[in-house]
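2024-03-11 09:14:02 INFO worker-7 job=invfold-0412 stage=load source=structure_tokens
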């Protein structure tokens, strides 16, 4: 069974994703001058635009679309707490769920890391026969203070991930589920919308 992956974004970005037909990398989104509700740390995003990738298509981490191997990520906790670049909380955050095989079927330039990709000592791996080396127990840990970096292992796809690759959209509340269903109603591709409060803090 293919390994599931999760990308978080603000609900206000969903119309753009559908209109573009894909999730763009930060670098490509900046190049295209697309509006975006940024929920991450600006300084980390800027650093990732200069952090070299030594495997697959090369370039920089910011030229890849990032996914975690679990919902309820460490970054979502930071968003929930509020940080200097975003204070909107987690109520409007979506989990866009796909899996490694589905994305790789449409994008051959992918790799994964054993810990948070931005860390200098993160291993970049494009040999997917090694994906079982990831520590699933730590990645899915509910209490992750002792395994914070391992929980933040990443799957990264070069430039874009097709909207058609998104299989499921996880939300915190029934109200947001209804909002999402209205947004995707006119889309040819309609992922399942699921209310998953356990994916949140």
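2024-03-11 09:14:09 INFO worker-7 stage=emit residues=201
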């Amino acid at each position: 069974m293919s390994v599931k992956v999760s990308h978080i974004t603000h609900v206000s970005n969903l119309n753009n994703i559908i209109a573009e037909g894909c999730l763009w990398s930060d670098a490509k989104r900046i190049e295209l001058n697309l509006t975006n509700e940024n929920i991450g740390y600006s300084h980390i995003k800027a650093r990732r635009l200069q952090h070299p990738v030594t495997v697959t298509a090369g370039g920089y981490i910011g030229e890849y679309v990032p996914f975690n191997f679990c919902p309820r990520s460490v970054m979502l906790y930071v968003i929930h707490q509020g940080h200097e670049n975003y204070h909107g909380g987690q109520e409007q955050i979506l989990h866009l769920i796909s899996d490694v095989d589905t994305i790789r079927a449409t994008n051959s330039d992918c790799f994964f890391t054993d810990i948070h990709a931005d860390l200098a000592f993160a291993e970049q791996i494009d040999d997917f026969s090694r994906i079982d080396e990831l520590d699933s127990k730590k990645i899915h840990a509910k209490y992750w203070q002792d395994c914070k970096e391992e929980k933040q292992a990443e799957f990264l796809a070069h430039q874009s991930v097709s909207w058609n690759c998104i299989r499921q959209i996880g939300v915190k509340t029934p109200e947001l589920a209804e909002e999402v269903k209205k947004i995707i109603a006119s889309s040819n591709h309609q992922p399942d919308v699921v209310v998953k409060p356990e994916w949140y803090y």
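2024-03-11 09:14:09 INFO worker-7 stage=report msg="Residues 4-199 form one domain."
2024-03-11 09:14:10 INFO worker-7 job finished
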